[in-house]
Design goal:
It contains nine helices and ten strands. The chain is α/β, with parallel strands linked by helices. The chain has a single domain, classed as Phosphatidylinositol (PI) phosphodiesterase (TIM Barrel), CATH 3.20.20. This is PI-PLC X domain-containing protein 1-like. InterPro entries: PI-PLC_domain (IPR051057), PLC-like_Pdiesterase_TIM-brl (IPR017946). GO terms for molecular function: phosphoric diester hydrolase activity.
Length: 320
């Protein structure tokens, strides 16, 4: 895991956002959580990738998983974060994008891991237990955990994981029937919301998929074009949604020109433009509210503070 302490090259976030939800004015404490601006991390567990693991993505490289140089290349571009889960929480991140997979030859019959191109070192239950421990010390902070993809998992794996989540978080879980606001979460003691994006989810303590809009391009201006269109045409009514600032390598030979760089360097180059777009959301040209905004390398260039501060610019309609 990443060590605590300052990071070089673009990192300016301090610890001012440790309990930022508790500091929001009373008028925002009764606003639905899907009307608040919430910072999130894209591929949250990307700091913990195991370069010795098999390759999961891209599928075209799975046959050459045994080649160290190929795994090293995947690791270079699949590493999306450099703060560990506790550091992300401390930095003010409140939405966590988590891809889950099972190793096909794992001797443990129920163990699962996170992944992004490669499996993580840490298993899912260990990481979620860490989140639960952090949440116990920060009861004013509402956490949104979005579990998805579920590679290699069968029904009994899902049932085990769902049972584990409901037992681990227990009375802290925000129920599907709830109308979550900060004030509701504080009064009820429910401040962990889990989205489980799979048909196996029939549990009223697990929320459905949270739509994640992203540009699927490495060009920041094209990301903004896609997000503006999504905000104009596809945002759900009375539900959560994510605008992802994350950049994506082009398919095929188009990726070759970027291989001398890293995802971090590309993110650092594009983030000023993308954060300028974030700052322009209130008042926005296409929408009356923004919700979750997620990024790679959440410690770079005041990303978290930029998103949190949007709440102070919220339109009067939502400030009442």
């Amino acid at each position: 895991m990443a060590e605590s302490g300052p990071q070089e090259g673009g990192t300016t976030e301090g610890n001012d956002n440790l309990d930022w939800m508790s500091k929001l004015p009373s008028r925002l404490q009764r606003v639905s959580l899907w009307n608040l601006a919430i910072p999130g991390s894209h591929d949250t567990m990307g700091y913990d990738l195991d370069m010795e693991s098999d390759i999961l993505d891209p599928e075209s490289l799975i046959p050459v998983s045994k080649l160290h140089c190929v795994r090293a290349l995947i690791h270079k571009w699949a590493t999306t974060q450099e703060l560990n889960i506790c550091q992300q929480l401390d930095a003010g991140v409140r939405f966590f994008d988590m891809r889950v997979a099972r190793k096909p030859d794992d001797p443990d019959p129920t163990r699962t891991f996170f992944y992004h191109g490669l499996y993580t070192h840490s298993d899912v239950e260990t990481v979620l237990s860490t989140v639960s421990h952090w949440a116990a010390g920060h009861p004013t902070e509402v956490l949104l955990l979005a579990l998805s993809h579920f590679r290699g998992m069968e029904d009994h794996h899902h049932q085990h994981l769902i049972d584990f989540i409901t037992q681990l978080f227990g009375a802290k879980l925000v129920l599907v029937a709830d109308q979550p606001t900060l004030r509701f979460c504080w009064d009820s003691g429910r401040h962990i919301l889990v989205s489980y994006d799979h048909p196996a989810n029939h549990n009223l303590q697990m929320w459905r998929k949270i739509p994640y809009f992203y540009g699927n391009t490495i060009v920041p201006s094209e990301v903004v074009t896609v997000l503006d269109k999504k905000l104009r045409t596809q945002t759900p009514i009375n539900y959560f949604f994510v605008c992802g600032l994350n950049l994506t390598l082009p398919d095929g030979l188009g990726a070759l020109k970027y291989l001398s760089k890293t995802l971090r360097s590309v993110t650092l180059e594009g983030l000023p433009f993308l954060l300028d777009w974030v700052n322009r959301q209130y008042p926005g040209p296409f929408n009356d509210h923004i919700n979750i905004i997620a990024s790679d390398f959440v410690n770079l260039l005041d990303f978290v503070s930029t998103v949190v501060q949007l709440n102070g610019k919220m339109p009067a309609l939502l400030n009442k």
